[in-house]
Amino acid sequence: MDGLLLLHGTIVTVDGTRRIIEDGALATAGDRIVDIGTAAELAPRHAGKKVVDCRGKLIIPGLIDAHGHAGHSLIRSIAADTNALWMRIVTPMYYHYVTREFWYADGLVSGLERLRAGVTTAASIITSMPRSDDPVFAINHARAYAELGLREIVCVGPAGLPWPQSVTRWDSGRPERHSVSFEEMIEGAEAVIETVNGNADGRIKVFLTPFTIVPSVEPSNASTPDCAVNLTADDRMQARRVRETARKWGVRIHSDAFAGQIRMAFQDKENALLGPDVHLQHCWGISHEEIDILAETGTYVTHAPPGRSTPILQMMARGVPVAITSDGAAPSRHFDMFQIARTAQATQHLLHNHDRYHLPPGKVFEMITIDAARAIGMDHEIGSLEVGKKADIAIVDMRKPHLMPNWMPVHRLVHQVLGSDVDTVIVDGRVLMEAGTVLTADMGEALEFGQAEALALAERAGLQAHMHDPGWGQLYRTFSEKVVPPVQPAV
Q1: What are the backbone angles phi and psi of residue 301, rounded to the nearest 5°?
Q2: pTM, 2 dp
């Protein structure tokens, strides 16, 4: 008989009744969970399966990161000391200095970090502001995740205004400037969908991702009511074309939204990027009216801490589903969803409500498992441990001093567990990591490749000499004077 039999662990199912099974067992066959119960019940029924001894361990659903950024793993700490300048520095880097090889390297590095932290499904937006003019960027990133055995949602779509956008490609080994129209961005996104959506036995998906749902206003922060008034022709055109393209290919939509944008988007009810096929990241500073719109349209929301102006509890009170995400790993973040969830809980009860009961551990854990699965439209397949669902599983070794005593498992998961405590990871019934060792890649080789590509990026951008400057002041001055490489004729 094929498959695995996980024995003698404590199972945190996150199923409909939120069962926790002590001395539990879980059996897989192919890519599915076929049986869950106690070890005494399952052991006789599945004698032919490979046994995984889970004594002293928790068996949990694979974690889900419903919003992160590809490219972040290889630019960490750049501009970390000056948040106001971060987008002004990293967006030109992504638009003018990256290569196709950079994206494969970032896929390996980010995928390994997530895998080792028990994250089995992740959404990756190609750059800080989506870039789809070269489909190979997204295709290479997805290739890395497919090789590792993980699930990835590749998010591609049109960049923000102005259109056309200026980009630089290095396909020939030298910089070649291109001007990319909105329609060319849509065509690039379609090429990614056609090439990789559904690849790796369905583990790779593509979502259509414009930078924001309303491009005419502030793209990375709340807009005041006097600035966010009426949709422009560009706003309406983007919504219409994104809706048409998503319908054509049968894909979901993901984007950022901030205060003012939801109210504006709702002016075009036919094409608004709102609804049950959409999940929106951030939603900083949104009004009660906008919360009502999210509830009325059935739109999902994802939140990355601290996000102190995101009204999480008010949205949840109105029935708006909310999940917790990483928002990527730069300038000074990581993909450890346990720590991220812990920060979200602390931010809410310490900075806003002074009440731990508003986001108890059980709810916080749901927000990186089943709630995140709902946000990406996959709760019928992943996000909980139930018979018939995909065998996406993380096993956490609780035999650590900081995790004692081994009781109240959900509290342990949310309050103390670290990504480094994950012992074994299974996706589609296949063991990707066992006893802390990744089985699907040579990690040392992948990290060396990633380091080389990061240094090559810094060299192309003229920043290599400043990578050890503790003040970074000269880096900012250099980059402000040299935002894009010299123009070379396209060939």
Answers
A1: -125, 140
A2: 0.95
